[in-house]
Specification:
alpha+beta; 87 strands; flat; 5-stranded antiparallel β-sheet; 12 helices; disulfide bond; transmembrane; 1158 residues
């Protein structure tokens, strides 16, 4: 009991962590009896012996205690207890609890909260009781008791238990649930979500913290900075920020701040001012190449730099002045424009202009309309060096001098002209229509396109869309993709390798309608043919804006021209002339023709009938109604019933043309009628509705890793570093700027240069004076002092006989296996002395990868001593993880993870980072993203991992990411779309003074607490000794239960104990006290300690005699908190025995339970 009380006292101060819930479902006490066989209320019926007077007033008690192998129903409920009110009679049930166990139902529910870690194992005692109605004592009202010992884990599901007893049956369910924010199998894992200064996280179903988006760390207090933010120069207090430290700037804090006032200078570290080329001075404000920067000399003068910001111009003949701006011979500068001839006069010059131009420099267009050249009322429009006449109807020609009603030269395409009363009529050849037979109906009907070309019908011609490998008007010319065809233009590139000083390369960047003009530094411009414009001469100037065609005509744009496709009933260049349907004299037998819009009407004579007065019998024939219409004879006239889409008296007019909905997109022109239409697309668009942008990047026009940007009828090449030109075929000569000093020889490379230094010089520009030293021997070769060379993925240098190499672990290099007797591909060769062998553990990233192997090595690779591996989750001060996310569509086929890792190891920046420490780069497919490769970077020293400065690995990771962000020639690395970096979060450094002071104050504080506790206990012992001397005079009934047995036993108590020993068998005795003085003394001391603990929970007072009477028993201790004094023995006339010892076994149970529940 003492230990149980101490355990409960400990739990009292802890925080609640869950609760045990019991839900009654059904109770059945058919006979209304108690556990001893008596009726709950009243007496039994004398006839059928049933308890029929009244039902039981049933309520339940629950006791939850620790797991017991041998369950005792007495004693304290260590884990807790609970009870219900009277909830029913003999039999009842809770329907909602039975039908839906997860539904909340307060009826029949007992909740026992616990304030400790749930121990899983338990003992449960469920008792049904009858409410005391005065007919029985409270100890005899037990109906039924269920004892269960089991294991249960916290959760929402309930365990249903059916108990069948001798007196009653009842069904109930139980479950254990953790309180809010408590988790785990023992409800002892606390996780409270928060979003404040102390953390930003949520809790999952297992109570584990999960950081909110943008936060990381154990307690999610560290913000994740903006992607790309340089963590060495930038910090953040909230996710997505990148606040630069002093001396740095830019969105990613990767740009240093130059020295204040620095004009033409840059910096690598803050507050530097490194002058750009041709600039000098303290603040780089002095122009050392004024001539090259400003080009001040005009008219072909030669500029010479003299001092900073100073220059002189050497002028050609005929010019003078500081900048050669004064013309001594005026005509030398060709001032006359538009072909004018210059003549020098005393006042300067005079221009003799050609026809159509005037003004001092022949820049003014002459007005040719001033002489009114247009006849017959035509309108003159002044043009450049000419004019144009807009003639009235019936007139045509240059000056409107031709009568259009005349047959002379009117009909085209072999048509025959016939004179009529109302003008002329053209009888067109097959395939042509229109007033002048100038419109070809279907130019593609004859199949003019060859070699599988696709034909597109134009108004008066056709266009062939040729397949790959063919060109020409009808796709008749075959060419190879490696050949230059005549559509390409030529770009001139400056070079020292030819006698002319230029190198001509072909390029089709300006398309078929432009000519390339070379510009400095590999740039170019396009000179367009008439009718085209745009940067790449890809835009055909739209001559249909504003719309010139009238009366619903469709304008078809041409090259510097247009044509109008007229609707039925109209003709002319602008569809402004009504077609005279009566010109062919369609009315027969003397009928009179009346011209209508796109139709005619015949007024018949002498009872002739029909559309053309051709019949005596009927108004209808097969040609009366057009376009499938049905003719009905109505006596004096006829009527046509038209098919869907056609209207008009003879069904000759299309209704709701398909072009009304503007189906052609992107400026396409719709031509059609009725139910069909055709889209004539603008250049650069294709498809039935001109919705698809033609891929101008197919076939790939860009060389040397250039990226093709597809536009509308144009493309642009974005060149990799080191290349230039319209199609990236020009290798930029980095030696043009003469970067190598001290007489060294410059060797041009791709996006770099190599300086071959003279003896005693070294460095990228041969700027380092190393003197004369010893040569080095390496791999059987001799290298001079100061020379550099590549050794697999490392760079080595010879310094006075000592070879110094960068320390990158290159691994085994991927190579292409020999197939069909051919050697390995030259793009992936092995070093000298090695061969390409198969390797079964290569990881394929983009199939197929069967052609890849690795280069053999004579010695096995050295073992790796590192925990920094991909997908391991390990991070420390010398370990970083980089995740490369690729665009799968851009990754070349046959790419392995080893290829990607090898390219990272061969980056020049990797050699710089591994100058002092060995750099390990390991790669593997990401477990979480199939499109990603996870890279682990770490430093090690002599085969052991280096616990170095965290900043070093962060700087290395940032440098690798920076190198990947730049354009390069690697096709694989061009497919990288996102890079993620993970490094260990380094805690902020703390001054040692603060922890030292904290330790000192903590020691002083602990010393003070120890002194106070010692003094308090000393005072407490003194008070206990004083109070012990006064116990004999204190009334224990008025004091808390602080039991200290007196030295003299009460004789009445001995009498009771003696009687009990005589009346009860040894196993049932509860008041045995005759064990000798030694045992009594031990029990006194134990009772003294137990009484002091019980004092904390007792709400009543117990007399010394009462406590002595209850506690002295051996084998079953009963203490009920009742403190009635010992009464004299109750002996009856029938028996001399003391009735107080009657039914002590029942008393043991009833008193213990009553004291616990009431």
């Amino acid at each position: 009991v003492q230990h149980a009380v101490e355990y409960l006292n400990t739990l009292h101060v802890s925080q609640s962590s869950g609760y045990f819930e019991l839900q009654l479902i059904a109770v059945q006490n058919a006979n209304g009896e108690l556990s001893d066989g008596d009726c709950c209320d009243g007496e039994r019926n004398t006839q059928d012996l049933r308890c029929s007077s009244d039902e039981c007033d049933t309520y339940f008690r629950v006791c939850l205690k620790e797991y017991q192998t041998d369950v005792t129903t007495t004693g304290l409920c260590i884990y807790g207890s609970g009870s219900t009110n009277v909830i029913g009679g003999n039999s009842f049930q809770f329907k909602s609890a039975k039908n839906n166990q997860n539904r909340n139902n307060d009826g029949g529910k007992i909740v026992i909260p616990f304030q400790f870690a749930w121990p899983v194992s338990y003992t449960l005692i469920v008792e049904a009781w009858d409410w005391d109605n005065g007919t029985h004592s409270s100890e005899d009202l037990l109906i039924e008791r269920s004892v269960r010992k089991e294991r249960i884990n916290p959760g929402d599901d309930r365990q249903t238990i059916q108990y069948n007893g001798l007196t009653a049956n009842f069904e109930y369910s139980i479950r254990v649930r953790c309180d809010e924010n408590y988790y785990g199998s023992k409800c002892n894992k606390l996780c409270r979500p928060r979003n404040d200064w102390h953390g930003h996280y949520v809790c999952d179903q297992f109570g584990n913290r999960g950081c909110m988006e943008g936060w990381m760390g154990t307690y999610c207090t560290t913000a994740i900075c903006k992607q790309g933010c340089n963590l060495l120069q930038g910090v953040c207090s909230a996710p997505g920020e990148c606040t630069c430290t002093y001396g740095w700037q830019g969105p990613f804090c990767d740009n240093c701040l130059p020295y204040p006032g620095c004009v033409h200078g840059t910096c690598v570290k803050p507050w530097q001012c490194t002058c750009e080329k041709n600039w000098g001075g303290l603040l780089c404000e002095k122009d050392l190449n004024y001539c090259g920067t400003n080009k001040p000399c005009k008219n072909g003068g030669t500029c010479m730099n003299t001092e900073p910001d100073e220059y002189n111009c050497a002028c050609p003949d005929g010019y003078s002045g500081k900048n050669c701006e004064i013309a001594e011979h005026a005509c030398v500068s060709n001032p006359c424009a538009n072909g004018g001839t210059c003549h020098e006069v005393p006042s300067g010059f005079e221009c003799h202009c050609p026809a159509g131009w005037a003004g001092p420099t022949c820049a003014k267009d002459t007005d040719e309309c001033a002489s009114n050249p247009c006849a017959q009322g035509g309108t003159c429009i002044d043009m450049e060096n000419g004019f144009e006449c807009l003639c009235l109807p019936q007139w045509a020609g240059k000056t409107c001098q031709i009568d259009v009603n005349s047959c002379h030269g009117q009909c085209q395409n072999g048509a025959t002209c016939k004179e009529g009363q109302r003008g002329y009529v053209c009888a067109c050849s097959p395939g042509f229509v229109g007033r002048h037979c100038d419109i070809q109906r279907n130019s593609c009907a004859s199949g003019p396109c060859r070699n599988g070309g696709r034909c597109h019908t134009l108004l008066d011609s056709f266009m062939c869309e040729c397949p790959h490998g063919y060109t020409g008007t009808t796709c008749e010319v075959s060419y190879s993709t490696n050949q230059s065809i005549n559509l390409f233009c030529t770009v001139a590139v400056a070079t020292n390798g030819t006698q002319e000083g230029v190198w001509h390369i072909s390029s089709n960047v300006c398309g078929p309608h432009g000519r390339c003009i070379s510009q400095p530094a590999g740039n170019f411009t396009c000179s367009c043919e008439p009718g085209f414009t745009g940067t790449y001469c890809h835009e055909n100037i739209n001559d249909c804006v504003p719309p010139p065609c009238k009366n619903g005509g469709t304008c078809i744009d041409g090259i510097s021209s247009f044509k109008c496709f007229c609707p039925d009933g109209w003709e002319g260049t602008l569809c402004d002339m009504d077609v005279n349907e009566c010109s062919r004299n369609p009315c027969k037998n003397g009928g009179r023709c009346v011209n209508l819009l796109n139709h005619f009407y015949c007024q018949c004579q002498d009872n002739w009938k029909g559309k053309t007065c051709h019949s005596r019998e009927s108004q209808c024939d097969s040609s009366t109604c057009s376009n499938g219409g049905t003719c009905f004879d109505h006596g004096d006239t006829f009527r046509c019933t038209c098919l869907s889409g056609w209207v008009g008296s003879t069904c000759n007019t299309a209704k709701n043309s398909t072009c009304d909905s503007n189906p052609c997109e992107n400026g396409g022109t719709c031509v059609g009628g009725g139910d069909a239409y055709t889209c004539i697309c603008k250049d650069g668009w294709e498809g039935p509705t001109c919705a698809h942008n033609a891929n101008d990047c197919n076939p790939q026009p860009c060389y040397n890793g250039g990226v093709c940007v597809d536009g509308v009828n144009w493309f642009r090449c974005e060149c990799a570093p080191g290349f230039a030109g319209p199609d990236c075929r020009i290798n930029i000569d980095e030696c043009q700027s003469s970067p190598c000093a001290y007489g060294s020889t410059c060797v041009d490379e791709i996006n770099s240069f190599l300086c071959v230094c003279p003896l005693g010089r070294a460095g990228p520009h041969c700027q380092e004076l190393i003197g004369i030293g010893k040569a080095c021997r390496y791999s059987g070769l001799q290298f001079p002092h100061g020379s550099r060379w590549e050794e697999e993925c490392n760079t080595c240098q010879c310094v006075n006989g000592i070879v110094r190499c960068s320390k990158v672990r290159c691994g085994r290099r991927p190579c292409l296996l020999q197939r069909g007797g051919a050697g390995p591909d030259s793009s992936a060769p092995c070093p000298r002395g090695q061969e390409c062998v198969e390797h079964q553990f290569l990881t394929c990233f983009a199939k197929p990868c069967h052609q890849w192997g690795v280069c053999s090595t004579p010695d096995p690779p050295p073992p790796l001593h590192t925990q920094c591996e991909p997908n391991s989750g390990y991070l420390d001060n010398s370990c970083a993880r980089i995740t490369l996310i690729f665009n799968r569509d851009k990754v070349p086929q046959g790419t392995t993870v080893e290829n990607i890792c090898s390219e990272l190891r061969y980056l020049p920046i990797a050699q710089t980072l591994a100058k002092d420490c060995t750099l390990l780069i390991l790669c593997d497919l990401s477990y979480s993203n199939s499109d990603a490769v996870e890279v682990a970077m770490s430093y090690d020293q002599d085969g052991q991992e280096q616990n170095g400065d965290r900043g070093q690995i962060q700087e290395a990771a940032s440098a690798i990411v920076g190198a990947l962000s730049k354009r390069h020639n690697s096709t694989v690395m061009l497919a990288v779309v996102e890079v993620k970096v993970e490094t260990q979060v380094m805690p902020q450094s703390v001054d040692h003074l603060v922890p030292v002071l904290c330790v000192v104050f903590s020691v002083l504080w602990i010393f003070c607490i120890v002194v106070c506790v010692w003094w308090t206990r000393k005072r407490k012992k003194e008070r206990e000794r004083e109070s012990a001397a006064e116990d004999s005079t204190v009334n224990n009934q008025l004091e808390p239960l602080r039991v200290s047995l007196p030295q003299h036993k009460d004789n009445r108590g001995k009498d009771i104990q003696h009687e009990c020993k005589k009346l009860m068998n040894p196993p049932d005795r509860t008041c045995d006290g005759a064990e000798g003085d030694e045992e009594e003394d031990g029990e006194e001391e134990e009772l003294r300690r137990g009484g002091m603990e019980l004092d904390k929970f007792s709400t009543q007072k117990c007399s010394l005699a009462g406590v002595q009477d209850k506690v002295m028993g051996k084998g079953g201790v009963i203490c009920t908190m009742h403190s009635a004094p010992v009464k004299p023995p109750h002996r009856t006339a029938y028996s001399p025995k003391d009735n107080r010892c009657k039914n002590l076994n029942a008393a043991n149970v009833s008193e213990d339970i009553k004291d616990h529940y009431v």
